[in-house]
Amino acid sequence: MKGHATYQIAFGKKVKELREAAGLSTREFADHCDIALAQVWRIESGRGNPTLETLRVMAQTLNTTVSRLTEGV
Questions:
Q1: 3-state class of 24 per DSSP?
Q2: Residues 36, 30 contacting (CB under 8 angstroms)
Q3: Are residues 14 and 32 in contact, defined by beta-carbon separation less than 8 angstroms?
Q4: Is 49 left (phi over 0), alpha (psi -120 to 50) or beta?
Q5: What would the pLDDT profile of 1-36 be if each residue is shown by its tens digit?
Q6: Which of 3, 2, 1, 5 has its CA nearest to residue 48?
């Protein structure tokens, strides 16, 4: 399970980095993705596990692809 937690933490850091680079607050990002603000916090802190649809919408909101969003994590 340790590897799984490491993956989630790395993914969350990447999402936060890309969100901040896009100039979006957590609230704006949540609104654009149509997900709860608490879900964004869980994802960015490495405790959330988004669905494939949420990944797709997050990537679209960040003007990237799911592949880039998950690359290297």
A1: coil
A2: yes
A3: no
A4: beta
A5: 456 688 899 999 999 999 999 999 999 999 999 999
A6: 5
